[in-house]
Amino acid sequence: MCGRYVITSPPDAIRALFGYDERPNFPPRYNVAPTQPIPTVRLADGKRTFVLMRWGFIPAWVDDPKTLSLLINARGESVLDKPAFRNAMRRRRCLLPADGFYDWRAGEPKRPYFVRAKSGAPLAFAGLWETWTGPNGEEVDTAAIVTTRSTRALAAIHERMPVIVAPEAFDLWLDCAAVEAEAAAALIAPAPEALLEHYEVSPAVNRVANDSAELIAPASAVAGMASSTPESAPAKPKQPDDQLSLF
After folding, report:
1. Looking at the chain, which runs of residues are DSSP E strands?
2. pLDDT-based confidence at 65, cuts 50/70/90?
3. Structural domain of residue 40, as residue ranges?
4. pLDDT of residue 103
5. Lowest mean per-residue pLDDT among 33-37, 49-53, 127-131, 219-223
6. Mean pLDDT within 229-236
7. Tell me, what's the pLDDT at 224?
8. H, E, C per residue of 115-132
């Protein structure tokens, strides 16, 4: 699965990779969490477009989102058939820019790991989106990340991972008018084994309010810095728990 991820590349680098015209300006984020607004890329009138959406998919037929479990991931093996996602798989596919994601190895306590491209380049997660219309006519664009089984290397941490779409396949995933859902579904597969690397990180990522580059530092490095800090050093101020906005 994917429950937290990272967007740290400069906006111009993301724009160059995904090829949209908009020029959004956003800071690096090291702990993107469900229900936050997230950058997505979709096709509109044949052009790639940058759109902010809520991370947490709401099917159009839902009357009250409070009665629905939070759908942050869509299981790739069932997106063609599952009622919550099948229409979006046919008509509303999107990409989510990212620089990596977190996952937790089972145990007591669970241990967080960071996964990223070995090259350091940004990644594109396959996504599905839907516009939910409320009882008063309000509209909310929502999205979920499509997942698949993990690579052999990542399976030791978790059995699921986001579907990563290669740049040469962006149009195959995004062009819902020209590419049938069944053809796009061919992209739902684990990433190439050589693409990614992973390492353990600090459990500080467990707290949504934490959002700094220290979260993606290897756990051994963080422990070394902590042990070398003088006891008299002042503690860093805590960030507020309600810091949930992506931008």
Report:
1. 4-7, 29-32, 37-44, 47-55, 73-75, 93-98, 100-105, 111-117, 123-133, 139-149, 160-162, 196-200
2. confident
3. 4-218
4. 96
5. 219-223
6. 42
7. 53
8. EEECCCCCEEEEEEEEEE
List, in sequence order, every residue forming a beta bridge with 197; answer none if it has no partner: 116
Closest C-alpha among 226, 184, 186 to residue 204: 226
First to last CA, the chain: 24
CATH of the domain at 113: 3.90.1680.10
Residue 49 counted as domain residue: yes
Let me know if 53 is exposed, middle or buried by CB neighbors in 10 A (0-12, 13-18, 19+): buried
Strands 111-117 and 73-75, how do they pair? unpaired
Residue 242 domain-assigned? no
Alpha carbon distance 241, 247 (integer Å): 16
133 assigned to some structural domain: yes
pLDDT computed for residue 222 by the predictor: 62
CA R_g for the chain:
18
pTM of the predicted model as reported, rounded to 2 decimal places: 0.89
Q: Is residue 206 part of a domain?
A: yes
Q: Which of 144-148, 150-154, 163-167, 221-225 has the lowest mean pLDDT?
A: 221-225
Query: Based on the structure, what is the number of domains in the chain?
Result: 1
Give how far Cα 3 sits from Cα of 31, 34, 45, 138, Å: 10, 7, 31, 27
